Amino acid sequence: MFICSSYAGNTFWTNPQYRVSVTDPDDDDDDNLCTVVLGLMQKDRRKKREQGLDMLTIGYCIYKLKEEVDGNLDLNFFKYNASHAKSPTFINTREVCGRHMLEPGTYVVVPSTFSPNEEADFVLRVFSEKAAEADSVDEDTGYDDSSRKARAPPIDSAVVDKLRDTFTKISGDDMEIDAYELRDILNAAYKQDPELKVSLILVKSCVGT
To answer: What's this model's pTM, rounded to 2 decimal places?
Structure first.
């Protein structure tokens, strides 16, 4: 949940912080960079709209760690360290996505609202061409590298079969699809969980269109 924030204010550091480590550059990248796509999505905003509340203006900032830091980054860190990258914009939409080319290393992603003292439930999705590790930073116990690394969940064979069947139907004889078709395929496979619905902007960010 967003605790509160203003990028330039004293409350920004109290937002949730997520540590992302990338180690292997893309295979076809001559600049030794790693592709990372971030998608920040507000949850339950439809219910909020029914209550007369609008979408919050959201976005995120990415900070590169020069050395290992335990626990949350504090106020002084943000005062003296500029962000390495940001979301393309802070905007009042359900999802904000960005495609970033990062050097191998460890980064902290801080999602936030644009205005201070606003709260919301959210989902932060991290995609990378090569394997990456992502974890939330716990304010009380700090970053536990040994026990809390994010790992891919077990593959659901039913979902895989659904993806394969839907891809075959949509791709046609050339076995190729565009971003719109990829979105439809993913949403068909995960339609049982509306919170995982994939937006077109996220798909386009993943494929670089």
So the answer is: 0.65
